[in-house]
Design goal:
homodimer; Alpha-Beta Plaits; 2 domains; 10-stranded mixed sheet; 24% helix; tRNA pseudouridine(38-40) synthase activity (chains A, B); tRNA pseudouridine synthase A (chains A, B); RNA binding (chains A, B); isomerase (chains A, B); PsdUridine_synth_cat_dom_sf (chains A, B)
Chain lengths: 258, 258
């Protein structure tokens, strides 16, 4: 059966997360239902990152096996037709080798987090950002973020239900940029690692927000990390500012295509 | 009664437009209902621009008369509290003179239009842009737009139900910028005039899109304008890419405040 890689964008709000669930809407379930319209029967797809409820994707990657040797462009068009009106879009499709795997072939995940700083509730960006009503000190947050970069035991910053075999991971990037966004001043966080622990990004951002607000000294983030204790973490921030922004592969299936 | 100016942001989707209507939700109705929570009784507010159904605002301006001499910041906070969960936010409030009028004191209106060019349906920006699935020639659109700038009889570009006394208006600006937007390549239109006719911006954008797609030569826009005939207009584009982006006053009430 020919295998296809799918580049997937979605709005997380209506979903209980990526992963298929028996009685709640999921992104995986929506795409599998669309695949069943093209080729009747059961479909099971795998994804690079299993995002939580409310988390968005700009460029999630999944793969599926089909009977027919679809033209990739026509496959994406047909899936988008059947996905409507769910806020899920296949932005690219590509034919891949039979042993290529969206999750196991991936060597890097990239996340973006949008934090809007303004008083009045956001209207156009509601559900697309985490909004706080106070200003934040980006320089202090950057100083604190430096402690998190590199190889560490991230026990402090992973949820207690995290299923990863080890809390030891390498964080390759955590940069914070000030952006004049559509609804006002934003901090945009860019994170990059081979893989992330459950709730790791939201644990980072929620903790760094405390530093930006002046409630935590930057050094307290280093101390929290070294404690390797979940109770040393700051508050976990809400999901609606988080986007799975990209997945890296040795041979990018979408690059290769054109 | 003290008069207050309100700077208002809203998402147009759930509303039949700015103007209060007997049996449909309106932005004006939502704000008047919030005012009635602060000071019981009937409230009637006036706005600089009466936007149509589905049209958004980044910075609409309205004014209201209240009994109490509210602190402007507390007024905006109280209104935002009562406006929830409607996607309407008071981003600023200011005390103004009793004869200041949001509509009649205004000498300039600014509109922004977002046109997204991509094939897959937008998820995060659904309802916030007009999406076309083909590329557009921005240079040709700019050439055509030059014909529209200045003092003209805009009969071609106003709706047949437009109530303005005269179709002769001065268009001060129509610029088109290419932007790498959140969901892909966008054209952003910036328009500025003392006032606009009904459906004028959407008639412009819909017509210019035909030029960008290669269906119209840029000169045809000049001919359409000179015809002063509604039937010479191109298609009127949908409302969801349109934003009332600002209103100009001789003495800006929000600038004056801080």
């Amino acid at each position: 059966m020919p295998r296809f890689a799918l580049l997937v964008e979605y709005h997380g709000a209506p979903f209980a997360g990526w992963q298929r669930q028996a009685d709640q809407p999921s992104v995986q379930g929506a795409i599998e239902a669309a695949l069943a319209k093209l080729e009747p029967g059961e479909h099971t797809i795998a994804a690079a990152g299993r995002t939580d409820a409310g988390v968005h994707a700009l460029a999630q990657v999944a793969h599926c096996d089909l009977s027919k040797d679809w033209d990739p462009f026509r496959l994406s068009e047909a899936l988008n037709y059947h996905l409507k009106p769910a806020p899920v879009a296949i932005t690219r499709a590509a034919r891949v080798e039979d042993d290529w795997h969206a999750r196991f072939s991936a060597h890097e995940r990239r996340y973006t987090f949008r934090l809007l700083m303004r008083r009045a509730p956001a209207t156009h960006d509601a559900g697309l950002v985490w909004q706080v009503s106070h200003q934040l000190d980006a320089a202090a947050m950057r100083e604190a973020a430096q402690h998190l970069i590199g190889l560490h035991d991230f026990t402090t910053f992973r949820s207690s239900i995290c299923q990863a075999a080890s809390p030891v991971k390498t964080l390759d990037e955590l940069t914070i940029t000030e952006v004049d966004g559509w609804s006002g001043p934003e901090l945009r966080f860019f994170l990059r690692a081979r893989s992330f622990l459950h709730n790791q990004v939201r644990s980072f951002v929620g903790t760094l927000e405390r530093v930006g607000a002046g409630a935590w000294e930057p050094e307290r983030v280093r101390d929290a990390l070294e404690a390797a204790d979940r109770s040393a973490c700051g508050p976990v921030c809400p999901p609606q500012g988080l986007y799975l922004a990209g997945v890296g592969y040795q041979d990018d299936p979408f690059q290769a295509q054109k």
